[in-house]
């Protein structure tokens, strides 16, 4: 595609969850200019048909492509499962990094031999997730837990209300009863719940997510393509298909301050 190293990287999610991945990229690659799109007007993806999710992903990918993004990060497990293959076929030569639940590191880390997965219905029902289990979890017991309602609360900026605490406790209990000592956070929204999870879980239960691994993969692909920016990063820009004011408020609630939030015209 011929973009220079100074070109930005596009990052998107069904809503604000991908901000957890954006933070990992900012930490590892402080020289990269980042563009973030939260498809908040269409969230959550996890309960929607795959064809609908693919349609949204294509629209957002094209939005970034027109803006000269040198790489694309799909900061959403459900969107990756539904659309990553189609996007790579549609944009050959464009580095596209997706998400997947951290089944391999969790299977290696467990001591009890039982791993729990908190994820959306869409991720747990995907062929991609089934393939991960076949490949990496043959020797461990995996307890999966769909979590309807969590994404919606996090999208509201709610990280610690009594209602959220009760809902999360309800989802955790079957995994604790099964003896899980390692929990996979299988949605990019869920790392924002780590402080609450540490309150609710025994101290010997490990949490595993993939944001840092995605940042490292982006670093590898940019380096291989001679696209790693060694200069100064520009300001991160944000777009949302939902309320700009609400998105700005959630950014502030998450400690990620920005006044530059625009409406996603797609």
Layout of helices and strands:
Layout: E1 9-13, H1 19-28, E2 34-38, H2 50-66, E3 71-74, H3 77-90, E4 96-97, H4 103-109, E5 114-119, H5 121-124, H6 127-136, E6 141-146, H7 150-155, H8 162-177, E7 182-185, H9 194-200, E8 206-208, H10 211-224, E9 237-240, H11 244-253, E10 261-263
Parallel strand pairs: 1-2, 1-3, 2-9, 3-4, 5-6, 5-7, 7-8, 9-10
In short:
This protein is an alpha/beta fold and 266 residues long. The chain is 43% helix and 16% strand.
| Coarse morphology | globular
Largest sheet: 6 strands, parallel
Helix proportion: 40-55%
Radius of gyration, in Å, reads 18 Å
Keywords, separated by commas or semicolons:
four-stranded parallel sheet; six-stranded parallel sheet; Rossmann fold; alpha/beta; globular; 266 residues
Question: How would you describe this protein?
Answer:
This protein has 266 residues and is an alpha/beta fold. It contains eleven helices and ten strands. The strands form two sheets. It has a six-stranded parallel sheet with strand order 4-3-1-2-9-10, with helices on both faces. Strands 6-5-7-8 form a four-stranded parallel sheet, with helices on both faces. Helix 1 packs across helix 10 (211-224) and helix 2 crosses helix 3 (77-90). The longest helix is centred in the first third of the chain and has 17 residues, at 50-66.
